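Summary for the lay section of the report: proteins are chains of building blocks that fold into shapes. Here we show the chain for Heavy metal translocating P-type ATPase and then a coded description of the shape we predicted for it.
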Amino acid sequence: MAHVRSWHEPALLVITAGALVAGGAAWLAGAKAAAELMWVGGTVVAIVPAVVWMALTLWHGRTGVDLIAVLALGGTLVVHEYLAGALIAVMLASGRTLDSMAQRRASHDLRALLEHAPRFAHRRLDGGIDTVAVSEVVPGDLLVVGAGEVVPVDGRVACGAAVLDESVLTGESAQVERNTGEPVRSGVVNAGSAFELRVDARAEDSTYAGIARLAAQAGAERAPVVRLADRYATWFLPLALLLAGAGWFVTGTAVGAVAVLVVATPCPLLLAVPIALVSGMSRASRIGVIIRDGTALENLGHATTAVLDKTGTLTSGRPGVIEVVAAPGIRPAEVLRLAAAVDQASPHVLAEAIVTHARARNLALPAPIGVTEQPGRGTSGVVDGHRVEVGRLTLPEHRPAWVEAVLNRAMLDAAAIAWVSREGLLQGAILLRDPLRPDAPRTIRRLRGAGLVRVVMLTGDRAEPAQEVATVLGLDGVHAEQTPTSKVECVRAESTAATTVMVGDGVNDAPALAVATVGVAMGARGSTASSEAADVVLTADRLDRLADAMDIARRARRIAVQSAAVGVALSVTAMGVAVFGWLPPAAGALLQEGIDVAVILNALRALRGGRHEGVAVPPSTESLLHHFATEQEGLRQTLHLVRDSAVLISESPGSQEALAALRRTQEFLDRELVPHEHAEEKRLYPALAAALGGTEATATMSRMHAEIDRLSRRTATHLALANTREGIGADQKDDLLATLYGLYAVLRLHFAQEEESYFTLAEADRHPEATHGPQP
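The coded shape description reads as follows.
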C-alpha cells in the first residue's frame, strides 16, 4: 500500500494539474467544448480515488474531510460547473500528495534484528567441528563459539570461562564473565577467546528470537492515530452539509448547494496541516533529527512523559577512566603508563579505555613483549624488562590501606577496577566507569522546558548506579535491572497514562521503542534495529537534539492548527455568502484558491525558526571553550592528589610521607590549577559574559574561583608552617583536613558546573537552530 501511494498520489497531481492547465489553454483558444471535456476528465480522475479514501476513512470508524471533497466534485459534474470541479481536483490531489509526505511511515519489520541473528553454528562432533544451520541445533549439543561471534542459541558455558559483550541485550557496555555452568543468552557477542557452549534451547525458543518477536508484536499493537485534519471534520462536515442544504433551500436550485460545497472543500485542512508538518520535519532534519512522519511530529509536539535508556543515552555508552590510584611511592602517571603499554595488545573494552586515556595524557607507551590474555582475568606482558599484569588480580591477604580505599571507592562509585602489578607487586589501580554525559543535566532541563512533566530512566544496569544517575539528573523515577520484556511493559504502562517518548540506542531497546507513543533512537552510534523501530532518529550523538525537535514539533503543530483554524473560518464565511446564491461555484473555487494561498504561506512559517532564545557563541569564544575544556579534563585526572593528601594526613599527620603528599598537592595547585582558574577569569568569563548578556551569568562561577583561590592560599600557609616544623603539626590536622576536603569538593562541583553550563555551549552552537526555545 505504501509503495502504491508513493507513486499514485504524485501521478494524480500531475494529471489533474495538467487537465486544468490544458483546459484553460483550450478555453483561451475558443475551444469551449474541449476545455470542458478536459476539466471533466480531471474531475473524474480525482473523484475515483477520493471515493476510495472516503470509504477507507469510514471503514476505520472516522468521518474524514474527504467526504466533502467527494460531494463537491460530484456536485460540480451534476450542475455542469466543470471549471470548479477541475480546481477542486487539483486542490485535493495536491493536499493528498503533501499529506502522504507527512504521514508515510518507515517499515517496522526490524530487518536489523533479523540480520544480526546468527544463521550458523559450529557443532562439536567426535570427528571434529561441523558447521550447521542454527535451526538444526538441539538442546544438549556442544557448540564452539569463536572470538567475536554471536552466540546462536541459549545455553551454558561447558568449561572454562567466557567473556561476553551483553550490550546487545542489556544495553550495558561493561563486559561480563561467565564461568562453567553459568547461563549464556543468544544474541550476546563473545568478547574473549573461543569457548564451548552446551545448548539449552532451540533457536526459535532462545532469547534473541524472542526479542525479535516481541518488537514485531509491539509495533503491531499501535492503534492508527487520527489525522489532525480529520479531527476538525467531526464538526466541520455536519456544518457544511447543513449550510449546503440551506443553500439549496434559499436559492431553490442544486447549484446553490454545490456552491456551498465548493467553498467548503477543506483545502485549508488538506493543504495547511501537511505543509506545516512537513516544514517542521524539514527544519528538524537540519539539526540532525529525522522524524519519520507527520503522526510522529504531532505526538512529539504534545508529549508529556519521557522514558530514557541509561547507557548510551544519558551516559557516554563506553567506559572511561575516572581515576588512577597509585601505591605509596608510585606516581599515578607511571601506573597508567604500565597498564596502557600492556593493554595495547588487548581488544577488551576496558583495555581500550585505558590506552585511550594514556594517549590523551601524551604518555609514551613502549611496545610490550610476550603479551598473553586470560579471558575474564586480564592481560600480562613484559614492559621495560619487567613482567606487568593488568586486570582482575589476586590481592594480598593483608591488604594495605590504599587497596581498601580503592575497593571502597569502586563500590561507592559503581566502578570497575583494573589492578596493575609489576613483578608481582601491586603498583596501583585504575577505576573505570561509564560516565554521565556532560550535557545530560542541561538536556533534562531543556526537555522539561520543552513540555515534559515526567522523565524516568529505564536500564538493565544495577539499582545502585542507576539511582545515582537519577539523583544527579533529578529524574522522576528509575527502573533498574530491566529485561527487554520488562522494558516493554514499563513503556507500555507509561504510554497508557500519557503521550510518551522513549529514547534508546541498542537492539535491546527496539521493542520498547516500538511500543512507545514516539520511539526515539540515538542513531549516531545506536543499532540499526533501534533506528528501524523508531519514529524519530537522532543522527547526531546528542540527546539535546530531542529537546530541539520537541520545540520544532510544538511550533509546527501550533502553526498547523492556526492555519487550519483561520482557513476554516474564512471558508465558513464564504459558505455563508454562498448560501444566499451570491457566490457561484467557479468564483467560489477561485476564492477557495485564494484562501489556500494564504494558509499555505502561513504554514510555511514552520520552515523558519521562531524567536531565538538560545545562546549564540561566536567562533572565538567557542575556541576558548574547547581550550579550557581540554585543559580542565587534564586537571580532573590529577585532582585526586588533593584527596589522597587528606587521607595520608588523616592517617599519619606527622609522617614525612604526609608532608611530601602535601607538597605535591601544593605544587599541583600553584603550577596548574590556580593558573587555569585565573586564566578562565581573565579570558573565558569576559567572553562568555558578552555572549550571555552580562557578568551576572558568570558571577556565581567567579565566586567559586575566589573560594578556590582562598582555599589554595590556606593550604599554602599550612605547608609553609609544616616546612618550618619539618612535619605537619597536630594542631594543623583538623583545619588542614577541612581545607583539603573542602577544596576537593568545591573543585569537583565547579568542574561539573562549568562542563554543564559553559563547555556544552561550544557543541550546541554547531547547529544554530538547535538553540531555539519554545515559541509563542
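Put simply, here is one thing we learned. The chain has five domains: 2-107+227-280+554-607, 111-220, 288-316+437-551, 320-433, 619-771.
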